[in-house]
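Input (RidA family protein):
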Amino acid sequence: MSIQRLHTEKRYSEIVIHNGTVYLAGQLADDYAGDIRQQTRETLANIDRLLAEAGSDKSKILGLTIFLRDMADYAAMNEEWDAWVAEGAAPARACVEARLYDPRVRVEMTLTAAL
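Output:
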């Protein structure tokens, strides 16, 4: 079975597709100056775009991990998530507080989805 890698850089690929499964690297907002709501919306929009490129969509997400800079943002992030997640297709999910690579980043998400 072949492995397809898209948007590959030296250290990572944005998308890896193997055996009917899509893996996305950690996704961030485009503008780190925004609040948690804006950063969450932008992160989810990037996920939508990459899943579409891979031939999948949010209704096929199997598992997702959310990294928050501060758990105080949990409720606001969840409001954006709840408005976005496909009805009846909530994935297995974890959310943890983490020190992210840039102090302006409030949220990062990584996921696995079916094709």
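Residues 27-109 form a domain with the 60s Ribosomal Protein L30; Chain: A; fold (CATH 3.30.1330.40).
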